[in-house]
Amino acid sequence: MIDGVSNDKICIYCHQTAPDRFRGVEHVIPQGFGRFGSKTPTLDCVCDECNGYFGRELDQLLTRDTYEGISRYSRGQLSSEARPQRRVSLTIADVGEAGGFVGFRVSVDGTTGQLMLPAAQFHVHNFKTGKDEVYFLPQIPTLVLPEGDYGKPGANGEKGTWRCKVLAPSREDHDAMVEALQRAGIDFRPGTPFQIPWESETGDAPSFLVEITSEIDKPHKRAIAKILMNFVVFHLGRDEALKPRWNFLRRYVRIGEGEIKARLSNRPFWTGQETDQLRFRDDSISIRIENLDGNIVGAIEFYNLPIYEMILVQNDALACDQEIARRYTPGELPLHGEKRPV
Ligand SMILES: [Zn+2]
Do the Cβ atoms of 61 and 83 come closer than 8 Å? Predict the structure, then answer.
């Protein structure tokens, strides 16, 4: 398919060769995670169509709606927008001074890295799943709460078996939520209105511990696999990346075909990392590709979070000098790393 092509340009994802379709630049690590000095790894062999697709479908998700994505805010890598997280659930944890705020669904403002003023929300316990569910104002008009799942609402002054509450940042938001519930036929009678004292007397926002829940699904895995494929291209070159052994990974990243074997690991990424001699700041991203258990395996560690390990090519091996690891720290040159101990 690619033999005999003499163009200077070829896309390693779709094999596009038209020179005028390579105006943009693909970054090995999405720029949301930072710029890595003058050694920011970029690729000139990803076409504009693939680059645009990755930006929309994979990079945005990874940088805004994953654990590592929101973790970047506390490493000084802020976003340009204050959009609530959709795929990562953040709730105020049941510790310390949280009190009645426990379970309040919140989100992080990407422009500041701080918790955003949360929207009014209706919490109701689902007895079938054993979980509290959270609904926001736009969802209320179509909300249906079958008795078999949620219990009996109160009626005619009698208390029902529903376990529910309304949490809101202000009295007005609280009342608007109660009104919406009643308009939707949900006879919620508020007790004492419960609202967040978001501004304390000193003007400081209160501080809460937050519990983060997220699911590593296919789009998330593809976004990580893309970084690993880009890393392969950057370090091993375009000719290597165009070899058929990378076809599975290429197609998985670009069109979502197939499924990749992946796991999370808590082992130290670098040899000696657990000792006092080698202690890193936790604001860097480490990536490696290596031979492991008869396969070519890629691994990436964002900050001090668990490491993603993925089988990139099954039943194949890199040459010794193709095994490679790098640590990227914003503003610093990438560090050449050793392979970790097996
Ligand atoms: Zn392409």
Answer: no
176: enclosing H helix or E strand:
helix 171-183
Gap from CA of 328 to ligand 1 centroid (Å)? 26
Beta-strand ranges (E) seen in the chain are: 26-27, 42-43, 89-92, 105-106, 121-126, 131-136, 164-167, 210-213, 262-265, 285-292, 295-302, 307-313, 324-328, 335-336
Give pTM, 2 decimals.
0.85
Ligand 1 centroid–CA 62 distance in Å is 20
> Distance from the CA of 46 to the center of ligand 1, in angstroms?
5
DSSP 216-280: --HHHHHHHHHHHHHHHHHHH-HHHHTSGGGHHHHHHHHH--S---EEEE-S-SSTTTTSSSS--
> Is 292 in contact with 316 (CB distance < 8 Å)?
no
For ion ligand 1, residues whose CB falls within 5 Å:
11, 13-14, 16, 47, 50
| Contact criterion met (CB below 8 Å) for 51 and 42 | no
Taking the CA atoms of the chain, what radius of gyration do you get in angstroms? 25
pLDDT tens-digit readout, 56-78: 999 999 999 999 999 999 888 99
